[in-house]
Amino acid sequence: MQAFNILIGGEAGQGLVSIGNILIKAIAKTGWHLFAIQDYESRIRGGHNFIRIRVANKPVFCGERAIDLLVALDDVSLSVHADELKEQAIVIYDPTLVEVPAAANYIGIKYAEVAANLGQPAIMANAAAAGAAWALLSDDLIAVETVLSEVFKNKGQDIVDGNIQCARAGFNIVRSRFNPQVQLEKPEQCESFMVIKGNEALPCGALAAGLKFMSAYPMTPSTGVTEFIALHSEQCGVVMEQAEDEIAAVNMVIGAAFCGVRAMTATSGGGFALMTEALGLAGSAEIPIVVIDAQRPGPSTGLPTRTEQGDLLFAVYGGSGDFPRAVLAPGDVEEAFYVMGTAFNLAEKYQMPVIVLSDQYLADSYQTVASLDPTKIKINRGDIVTETESTVDYLRYRFTESGISPRLYPGVGEGLVVSAGDEHDEAGHLIEDAHIRTKMMQKRMQKLNAAAAEALEPVIYGNTKPELMLIGWGSTKGVIREAVDLLSAQGCAAMAIHLPQVYPLSTKLREYWEMPSKKVIIENNYSGQLQKLLSMELSVTPDFWIRKYDGRPFFAQEIVDQLVGGEANGRKGEI
Amino acid sequence: MAEKVKFNIAKETAWCPGCGNYGILRALARALENLGLRPQEVLFVSGIGQAGKTPHYISGNVLNTLHGRTLPTATGAKIANNELTVIAIGGDGDGYAEGGNHFIHAVRKNVDLTYIVHDNRVFGLTKGQASPSSDLGMITGTTPHGVYNEPFNPLAVAISLNGAFVARAFAGDQEHLQLILQEAITHPGFALIDVLQPCVTFNRVNTYQWYKSRIYDINQDPEYDPSNQKMAWERSWEWGERIPIGVFYRVKRPTLLEHIPALRSGPLVKQPMNSNIDEVLAQFK
Fold this sequence. Notes:
The structure holds 2 protein chains of 2 kinds.
Chain A: E1 3-12, H1 16-30, E2 33-39, E3 46-56, E4 67-72, H2 75-81, E5 85-93, E6 106-108, H3 111-117, H4 125-134, H5 142-152, H6 157-177, E7 194-197, H7 198-208, E8 211-216, H8 223-231, H9 233-236, E9 239-242, H10 246-258, E10 262-267, H11 269-285, E11 289-295, H12 312-317, E12 326-328, H13 333-350, E13 353-359, H14 360-364, E14 366-369, E15 418-420, H15 434-453, E16 459-462, E17 468-473, H16 477-489, E18 494-499, E19 501-503, H17 508-513, E20 518-523, H18 529-538, E21 544-547, H19 556-565, E22 572-574
Chain B: H1 20-34, E1 42-46, E2 61-64, H2 70-80, E3 85-91, H3 92-98, H4 100-109, E4 114-119, H5 154-160, E5 165-170, H6 174-186, E6 191-196, H7 208-212, E7 215-217, H8 229-235, E8 243-250, H9 256-259, H10 277-282
Parallel strand pairs in B: 1-2, 1-3, 3-4, 4-6, 5-6, 7-8
Antiparallel strand pairs in B: 5-8
Helix pairs in contact in B: 1-6, 3-4, 5-8
């Protein structure tokens, strides 16, 4: 067996996150690849939450619906996922919590009893459950033991030992009562991987890119970014100040960026809506800020804990008046890490706001990666007036050929820095003059030309002479790639195009578009926002499209089913 | 003390002749000069409104932002470079209506900046509508039947939140205003100076003469104790026949900047961008 799909399901508060985290870390330590999706409800207790972990001995880029092992912490997990169980699927359940028919592939373990028999507290039932699940992956428990030692080392050796005992007991029960047929092939290489989710990769990238100040207001699914920076602020010499609302957050960021530090905020759609006025200020006053929008389904409060790509056009065009900006759309944890360097460089080079579009799927999904190399993030702060230059007659908005006026930080040197969101002259003072207004608009907008010339290029995968081209942006990168693999296996020459930058668009996209193939745009939204964007920016239309807006991420097979089952091009393919 | 450097004042402004803003502008320039500051060391942050234009009329660094957003922007600037003297300037519409939420939280955060509110009790830039501090009954373009919402009392709010420095001054008494400003700028933490400012065009009630016949300096009262929060709160409600000006409340409490570990090694803007990222990434291995 080369791949194995685990689903851990239960109510919020039952410990499934702890069980999932132990397994995820142990899998990465062993050198297996994984992709894990977290699916949770907007509540702290109860409901039905689950984690889907796909383990493989080769790289995997998305989750899979078919389940090999179900770890059920409640009845609902069995009923909701019944149709996802493979024929030979194994179910591990707790008979004190779940009633199931007696069957060979159902293994009942009373986790709390396991812990109690060992004289350990009930909370260690989680370790017993993790150990039990692990028995189906491996014939030794070494990786799980290592993870438990690391996770609990700050709580003392007793806690570490107790958890290991419980994990071992769970592991032994499965192996004694049931001779596991399922054992995943050992990884091709036994080096351990990093395992990280989007909400960790983004802030790590920001830190590597020289972030010094962050302000934010908590909003799911972006809160992980904010808490990550807050947690590491002292260690990294960074400030994270929680704001009274998203308006305050982005304006604090503007104040800090104006004074010369790299600054960002993170939010989701509703909070981003509150920030759009300030985006215009950053555009007009030419202040470099970075805004992470971790999208969730809207409109309004929408589905707070679910995923969607519904803010694309809002990010690209939202705001009063015209101002330059860039919008980036990382597709996986690796891109999420490195794109933060691009975001800050673009922001400072072109003195404009840069928006990074994440979403709940990217934010909360774990992926294994070989490494993330901070030295690959090169810091380019753009055109800065240094302390040694004469700044006495400094003009903050001096007209230049490129439209970029060198920045001076207030309090550095003799020059005075005058900035305004009102229309202003070269000195930064307020004007009403029609001629200067025209020149200022042109100066600002002109910066986009150079920004477009260095836009991140589309990332292609698959057949380079395709009959079918699957185009997406942001977090669909992995799932579209796997759809291409499935199509290729069926003899279809397919290519994936992922756009890590959606505005301004790379000129390379038109080159790909001119290739003679059918084009399909795949998006996690209702109205086809990328399709509209390409229509406006490039005047192109795809042959057909696939959209999903139920708050859940795509599976690769869903995409293939739509393509293969679709009778006519131009058909609106809704899953 | 080093030789005084002049804070130049613009000869031409967009304000009406006789506007209370002129008095505030002159007192501010004098206060900064007296404190021995140089324009390069000062950052004026303002929002939108007639008061929001003030920074453009005095020498210094300027960040003229959005309506109501003066305080968060000034907070971010101060955190980024705590060597700057940050003066936030706005009006009653800007600060108490559009920016009301930020006002409350800036007092709570106790960020080390001076907040001057040109309180003319009316919207000047949009031509005379009621503001949060307009007196009850005042007839304006948006309140043809008279203002019926309870006037906002910024002093009572700031004192209730244990604001570090809470004062009121009068644009028609520049000498007093200048002294209050000097004290506010040197006081650690958030300093509010609500300045009674006659609007000669749109407010025919609260005129220079109206104020002059009512104001008195509370700090001349030997019984008054500006370290007593309860006394300050009670006095902040006095309005009508007699209107108190002066320092209502003054307390030393830790400022926002003192709570931030990263600022112990100097201004953020002068710190290296290296951030121990390798240590941070190690947890994912």
